[in-house]
């Protein structure tokens, strides 16, 4: 064992360490925070270590990052059989693993592929809402609902937590968020139940429990796991993915009533969908590889861009003026700056050995930056 340093040697070491420099000379740090909050994050990252630490601190306004549910491919079976979560920091252009859930909040063992469903992955449904990432639905190896309570990650605090128990745990449902609440509609439990297939449940993220809202007219929305899109006080969803014939419904949150979907909206909903700030809706027409934007006043779609790489897109999410797209096979993630004219697009590769299952746009994680 090494000798314990003497008091004089400890003082010498302390005196050799440089004093912590102020963020901005001549200003107390709380005022420097206000000034530096106006500086673009890439500049803060590149100037100094102290500014970089500030950029990732919980007290500093967070910039947006890309979050991904990733699957690892088993080299022996060549099948996707493990899920992890990572965040892509656009400032440092690096991936960071999310901290694992604590032992009392274990991550379920999701089944991604099954011999009975050749060439089709079983869905894991996740939602980004009010700065949180929520896992809502999936399938176990026994073909049962994987989640009986939402599993929630808050990036700014770097913490996981559970939501309240789901009254009717389900899979193959419609899931989405609107107005600060998350919705689960239709789907099946361990077995098909007509009452579950018609039911719709809502949980306000600050509320103590789920509540039932007006049920669906029938159980036809238990056919596929689909997105429920929050758009200007309504929740919109279709019951089939892609270009197949489908039905669409719209839930009016204020009146607690279901309505028929406008014909124009239904006709163009031919792939993964998301809404930017619950104000503008985007869809990838997966057959044409086109990113399209919905105009509610005219009930029609406008093409933003078309690209071969977007054909067969799996899932999308929107935030911060960007639409992030999981391309076919999950081997690439496309990012489109839809607020620019013309729209600009670039690609992000998932970490080596992984494939993207879903992406979300959320505030960056807090971390200690050396």
Walk me through what this model shows.
Residues 1-18 have low confidence and may be disordered. Helix 3 (41-47) runs antiparallel to helix 4 (49-55). An eight-stranded mixed β-sheet has the order 11-10-9-8-12-13-14-15. A four-stranded antiparallel β-sheet has the order 3-2-1-24, with no helix packed on it. A four-stranded antiparallel β-sheet has the order 4-5-6-7, with no helix packed on it. The protein starts with 6 loop residues before the first helix and ends in a 7-residue tail after the last strand. It is mainly β and 370 residues long. The longest helix is centred in the N-terminal third of the chain and has 10 residues, at 7-16. The protein has helices at residues 7-16, 29-36, 41-47, 49-55, 194-198, 263-268; strands spanning 64-73, 80-89, 94-97, 125-129, 132-137, 151-154, 159-162, 174-178, 181-185, 200-204, 211-212, 226-231, 234-238, 248-252, 257-260, 273-276, 280-285, 290-295, 300-306, 315-319, 322-326, 333-337, 344-348, 354-363. The relative contact order is 0.12. It is globular and about 65 Å long. 12% of the residues lie in helices and 36% in strands. The chain is built from six helices and 24 strands. It has two domains: 27-61, no CATH class; 64-363, Neuraminidase.
């Amino acid at each position: 064992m090494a000798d314990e340093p003497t008091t004089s040697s400890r003082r010498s070491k302390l005196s050799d360490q440089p004093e912590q420099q102020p963020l901005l000379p001549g200003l107390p740090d709380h005022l420097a925070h206000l000034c530096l909050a106006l500086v673009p994050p890439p500049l803060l990252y590149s100037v100094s270590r102290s500014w970089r630490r500030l950029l990732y601190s919980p007290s500093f306004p967070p910039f947006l990052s890309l979050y991904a549910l990733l699957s690892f491919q088993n080299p022996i079976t060549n099948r996707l059989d493990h899920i992890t979560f990572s965040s892509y920091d656009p400032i440092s252009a690096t991936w960071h693993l999310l901290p694992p859930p604590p032992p009392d909040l274990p991550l379920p063992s999701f089944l991604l592929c099954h011999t009975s469903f050749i060439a089709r992955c079983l869905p894991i449904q996740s939602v980004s809402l009010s700065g949180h990432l929520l896992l809502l639905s999936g399938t176990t190896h026994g073909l049962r609902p994987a989640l009986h309570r939402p599993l929630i990650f808050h990036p700014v605090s770097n913490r996981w937590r559970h939501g309240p128990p789901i009254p009717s745990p389900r899979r193959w449902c419609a899931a989405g968020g609107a107005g600060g609440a998350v919705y689960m509609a239709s789907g099946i439990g361990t077995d098909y139940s007509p009452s579950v297939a018609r039911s719709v449940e809502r949980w306000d993220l600050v509320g103590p429990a789920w509540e039932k809202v007006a049920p669906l007219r029938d159980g036809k929305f238990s056919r596929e796991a689909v997105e429920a899109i929050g758009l200007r006080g309504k929740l919109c969803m279709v019951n089939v993915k892609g270009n197949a014939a489908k039905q669409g419904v719209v839930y009016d949150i204020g009146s607690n009533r279901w309505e028929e979907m406008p014909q124009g909206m239904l006709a163009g909903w031919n792939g993964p969908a998301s809404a930017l700030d619950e104000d503008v809706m985007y869809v990838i027409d997966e057959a044409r590889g086109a990113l399209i934007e919905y105009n509610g006043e005219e009930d029609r779609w406008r093409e933003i861009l078309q690209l071969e790489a977007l054909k067969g897109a799996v899932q999308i999410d929107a935030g911060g003026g960007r639409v992030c797209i999981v391309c076919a096979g999950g081997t690439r993630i496309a990012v489109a700056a839809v607020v620019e004219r013309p729209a600009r697009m670039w690609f992000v590769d998932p970490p080596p050995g992984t494939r993207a299952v879903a992406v979300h746009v959320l505030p960056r994680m807090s971390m200690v930056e050396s």
